[in-house]
Amino acid sequence: MIERIIIAGFGGQGIMFLGKFIAWAAMRENKFVSFMPAYGAEVRGGTSHCAIVISDKEIASVAFDAIDTLIAMNSPSLAKFVHRLRSGCELFINGSMIDNAPKIRGAKVHTFKFTEIASELGNARTANMVALGAYLASKNLLSLKNILKLLPEAFKNNKKLQALNEQAIKAGMNLIK
Amino acid sequence: MNREQRTEDRGEKVLLSGNEAVAKSAIDAGCRFYAGYPITPQNELIGYMAKNMASSGGIFIQSESELSAINMVFGASASGVRAMTSSSSPGISLMQEGISYIAGAELPAVIVNIMRAGPGLGNIWPAQSDYFQAVKSGGHGDYHCIVLAPSSVQEAYALTFEAFVLADKYRIPVIILGDAMLGQMMEPLSVHSQEFIVHSKKLRTKSWAATGCKDRKPNVVKSFYLNLGDLEKFNLKLQRKYKNIQQKEQRYEELNINDARIILVAYGTMARLAKQAMVSLREKGLKVGLIRPINLWPFPQKIFQRLAISDKRLAFLVIEMSYGQMLEDVKLAVNGQQRVEFLGRSGGGIPTEEEIIKSSLSLLSS
User: Fold this and answer.
1) What are the CA-CA distances from residue B272 to residues A36, A62, A98, B356 (Å)?
2) pLDDT at residue B194, rounded to an integer
3) Model-level pTM?
4) What separation in angstroms does the CA of A6 have from each of A3, A117, A132, B269?
5) Correct CATH for A2-175 of 3.40.50.150, 1.20.1250.20, 3.40.920.10, 2.40.100.20
6) Which of A33, B76, B321, B341 has its CA 20 to 30 A from that of A101?
7) If DSSP codes are grouped into helix, strand and coil, which group holds residue B308?
8) Choosing among A22, A32, A57, A62, which should be mutated to test the B contact, i.e. which has the most B CBs within 10 A?
9) Does B188 contact A at CB distance below 8 Å?
10) Maximum Cα–Cα distance for chain A, whole Å?
11) pLDDT value at position B102?
């Protein structure tokens, strides 16, 4: 098993947080995992992305070309990575900020309004966690139980934030039938 | 930090970047003086030090330049403290004079170079183009630094710890040579146990250190020998030390070399890609092996010398994120007795698994 994920959006959407969170969850499930941030001259409000590799074998390269899963939170980020999508990949698209999902032959495309769903739950900034929920439900690679166990550590025992993020993850999971 | 501490207490892994792992390892190894000047892609290292050095009872200084950072390390080390600095390629170039002085004064020090692409200001992407500078010594004078090249976050932690031990043991500057990929990527890390750390931190007495000379003869730390003959005598002593290190410190990893017809040679993160290519080629039934030098100085010559004189025809394929630097050391060790070929990219370009496979296949068929 090898899963190569790109998460992309604009600065402030919790792109790096989500990437590290997934890597952290994979580590707790004793999988081999790497997380690589885009560390270039990133501009505030500009695009932001990170790459995660999860595997049951030692990971050779933390950088990769063909993407297995793309979580795209806004249009410019989708445009940046669309050429690296291949048949068999899975896309999670934030319909709140992306009008047209790309047509990739053999790809599984999920378009949901992550930002709007998060707003309705009480904080648009949890859109990343809604996307995570959809990813968890569709890919079934990481267990919800383990993910929820990380929340108290991730949010430093802030009960309100924990609850909000848990709600967001579950709302995301419910999107996948 | 709290989260990390609690996790460690449970003996679980922590998720850290290569930069953070080097910094954490240094503090665990008893480094109590750090000076550095920010530069991408090693800023998480200096950031970790800024955050954690004071609470560990050490001193953190963001110096006004790389020159001053390396000279502060000289001073701290002369007083007997485990000291470190870090930077990336252009910053390390600025430190060369200080590194030469440290080597000349026989001081232990750890210098971390998280390489970016050059020459000049270059760019911030991964490269291995400072191999010559590290291994052949970028400063003036006949000196050497021990050079260690980790290929994972776990190894970055282990080798940084080891670097402090080696630096004290031989009174020599030790360079950790990583690249931007190693510095930036996060991977699970198991840290040393508290017992191990406490045991290893018991420093040998530094009888040479400038610690205050009440009731004893003053110690002088210098790299200056004006009288004719004195410097040559000192240099010969240094050379004997280097010879001793060359005999004892030849670290490398070897995989599948016994039946191999082609041996891939790569270090650092590049070796991970080479290993992946080797696995793919083995799956096709092709006899490919790998040697990953862990010490770059002293270069692990013995393994190459042994293979070079074997009866069967072999080819070495050296793969680097440069245009052929370690290649020269492989050629010296192989000494013309077997074929040595090269695949390299730089300037931020990284040889891909496909390119390594292609080069290996063309070598096998020629």
Assistant:
1) 15, 9, 37, 12
2) 82
3) 0.95
4) 10, 22, 12, 20
5) 3.40.920.10
6) A33
7) helix
8) A62
9) yes
10) 44
11) 98
